[in-house]
Amino acid sequence: MADADETTQKILDAARASVLAFGVRRTTLADIARRAGVSRMTVYRRYPDAEALLRDLMTRELGGLLAEREGEDSAEPFARRVTRAVIAMRDHELLRKVMDAEPELLIPYVTDRMGATQAIAFDVARRAIEAGQAEGTVRSGDPALLAQMVILIVQSFVFSAGINEDEVPAAELLAQLEDLLGRALAP
Q: Whole-model pTM?
């Protein structure tokens, strides 16, 4: 099993390198196999197509980023932790590449369905809200409902905060996000 996990990580690492170099649409499973030093069949056994591989890659990268953030100082206000996570997501090299070169690939995750990374974000937010409620730093209410509200707000800041940066600097907008979430979740 360790070999399978190591091989999968090599494949995902190769996919990351290929996407950063060429973009999603120009990345092929054959190129990924070559970069990973494995056969094409090894890749095809794990992933039926490049889209499935990209989903796993984004989940590994962004889900890992969110998991790291969850372990950070919980004494810091929730709204500040969320804002710092938004900054980290917006600065993430792989997400930035997809947003800059092929943003249409992200539309289904904004309009049609919740992806694995969003599910991870939802769970992280729900747990943080539950902890905040127990501490008295987050208002009462259904943690799942509050977490979904946070996810919907955060998505717009991750994907769209830079669209009017000439008029509204991103740093000022992110300060507003922190204020908005702080007020929305205040006890």
A: 0.86
